[in-house]
Amino acid sequence: MRYGHHDELSWLSFEEPIRYTECRELKAFLDQVVIPEMADTMVIDLRDVPSIDSTGLGLLASIGRHSLDHLSRRAVILCPEGQVSQTLKAMQFDKLFNFTSTLEKPAELRLAPVEVCAKAEPLATVMLEAHKELSEVDERNKQRFSDVVEVLEQAVTRGNTGSS
User: Fold this and answer.
1) How many CA atoms within 13 Å lie on the side-chain side of 56?
2) What is the pLDDT of residues 92-151, one digit of tens each?
3) Which residues pair with residue 75 across a beta bridge?
4) Three-class SS of residue 163?
5) pTM for the full model?
6) What's the CATH class of domain 2-162?
7) 155 touches 123 (CB < 8 A)
């Protein structure tokens, strides 16, 4: 994953599958860097992503919702037609994002590899928050993921109770 910010453009580029196993670090990076400095135009480059799971979808949804809520505009997803694009559209991401398959990164924008953020939440908490975000995109998503959200809520509650 690589990230760059210049003037009114933020660009987050993924280079491999987006899976729940890496989502703790991704969520921490989004919370600590991307969301606080999100510019007028936020581009999420998924051209090199062969697959994305529901936790990853929920984290992307959080970017889209933040852009709409705080900047009053849709973020951009750069993604060619294919499996990932079909998945995003099936999850109603067109309500949060503008899709394009052709967009070039400006030459002056430098992308740097993302450094892992130290403060990462427990995996069950990240997964729960991501699935709640995904569920809020559309009523169909709410129905699709209601069981997952319920199981994750129980896991988070048990985890919090167990650590008291």
Assistant:
1) 18
2) 999 999 999 989 999 899 999 987 666 778 888 999 999 999 999 999 999 999 999 999
3) 97
4) coil
5) 0.88
6) alpha beta
7) no
> What does the alpha-carbon distance between residue 147 and residue 149 come to, in Å, rounded to a whole number?
5
Rounded to an integer, what distance in angstroms lies between the CA atom of residue 143 and that of residue 154? Answer: 18
Distance CA 9, CA 58 (A): 22
The tokens for 7 are: 């003037």
Q: Are 98 and 74 in contact (CB under 8 A)?
A: yes
Beta strands in 7-155 (DSSP E): 9-13, 41-45, 75-78, 97-100, 112-113
Count helices and strands in the chain by DSSP H and E runs? 6, 6
Write down the pLDDT at residue 38.
Answer: 86
What residue spans define the domains of the chain? 2-162
